[in-house]
């Protein structure tokens, strides 16, 4: 990448040989990997129990463009705008194909073709549109429906419900038919064509969405409305570094793909189906964890999104609220009271893990979910208002009665977030402290799959001395699988940053680059390219290493703590749009100073009234009020942002 290239645009002249690493295009409701003849819809699964997986939905936009004469190809993913662009340049013409999942209208996907004449000629220019679409699916029984306003229409239901007595989702597809060729007449210098695809759960919604798409095309607003929605997202969050182009590009890719997995910030449908490890573009039968939602969503992906977007954080929590009945059913089946969130979840919240042992024993999922709720409450104080999220938080803390079986230190500490008790009602002894002191004096002899005990310091915040923190890091690093899941080394990096060892942290963080499969910055679960693809879990862990490692951000009950530290090859870190207690802040971190700007408030996300905020520096005791629009700069030292005037507490914890 040249020094003046745009890090938000990923460009290549050849596609990856492994088509799994083509870029996904998603909008929180529809997900598709470029050129694939299969896409997925949020909340549409097929199969019962452990056979449940994202239902394959045929994609009419699975089209490649070809010119008859020799051409030069350029493929670009513009993350500024959320558009994949294929350009074919020949001596006589240039053809440009643009593909996107509409960011504002979630039921809509778009293909646009632009054909431009490059030389004066009386000959027409023709492009071929080679489609791999077939209107069938192994998961959905489709039937042809009546055409609608020139659009083709198929409709069908999945073949098998998630659980006995459950419903089978309905899918309607309406799309602009794609011809075999397009022609630029001799008298024209350029021509444009637009093709829209609508996927919806009802005929009424499908027709209304198709109408909307046609109207947007007619007024020239289809693409601008999509680009505007992405522009709005990026205005609310940016994570950029100066000094390392590869790191900057990796962070942008992580933010783009994670945001693509979430719904629009204007979505009020409450139909969000959660985030699976491979996102909506993946998760078919036997692939990418079947599209199930794990703890990955709550622990790995959620924190980096919640720091900027309270509405998107809330969507994750509302997904969990919507699965309470399934969580109760899981608990009953295992002979317990209260809630047992599934290790692998689809729509109902009932356990859909293909292997019973994990579904029964991975009980730390309750602690993971509770931690996500606590994180949201501390960032927003939204619990001061009556709402179902507050009720859910209290339910987790009072109804969950599970034995604190000690599978690991991580499990035990996570369980403490949900007031766990054995069946007989007696409290278990505090095994955590015992195990913690023993772990540092015991030589580990077994391989560790991924970060576990090192997560006690972050994200769980277990108080411990620097000596214990260091011992855990040193003990676990040599026995952790070097080819394990991608999020692991980000947690080690955060640990070393806490101890002030930035270069040690950076060496570990750089291991994550082995999981980034170019040229489109698509992550694989394992460094050799195997495992889940578009691995959002790994992206979330990597993003946290910078957002909570370099900055030292810690979301606490009464403040947002910070303790910044940058490695040698990073000159500056810019974090824009940090959302705390209804206010947005832009942070600029340098080697020896920190600058914060409190943004002028146009309106508070989630109807939360912003608080007056101040910066408190721990070593000097200096207190600096934050005034909207006025930069505040101070020497680098640990501190925290908190309310300027303390108000009555309304915390449930």
TrEMBL record:
<protein>
    <recommendedName>
        <fullName>Glycoside hydrolase family 65 central catalytic domain-containing protein</fullName>
    </recommendedName>
</protein>
<comment type="similarity">
    <text>Belongs to the glycosyl hydrolase 65 family.</text>
</comment>
<dbReference type="Pfam" id="PF03632">
    <property type="entry name" value="Glyco_hydro_65m"/>
</dbReference>
<dbReference type="GO" id="GO:0005975">
    <property type="term" value="P:carbohydrate metabolic process"/>
</dbReference>
<dbReference type="InterPro" id="IPR005195">
    <property type="entry name" value="Glyco_hydro_65_M"/>
</dbReference>
<dbReference type="GO" id="GO:0005829">
    <property type="term" value="C:cytosol"/>
</dbReference>
<feature type="region of interest" description="Disordered">
    <location>
        <begin position="141"/>
        <end position="161"/>
    </location>
</feature>
<dbReference type="GO" id="GO:0047402">
    <property type="term" value="F:protein-glucosylgalactosylhydroxylysine glucosidase activity"/>
</dbReference>
<dbReference type="InterPro" id="IPR008928">
    <property type="entry name" value="6-hairpin_glycosidase_sf"/>
</dbReference>
<dbReference type="InterPro" id="IPR012341">
    <property type="entry name" value="6hp_glycosidase-like_sf"/>
</dbReference>
<feature type="domain" description="Glycoside hydrolase family 65 central catalytic">
    <location>
        <begin position="266"/>
        <end position="382"/>
    </location>
</feature>
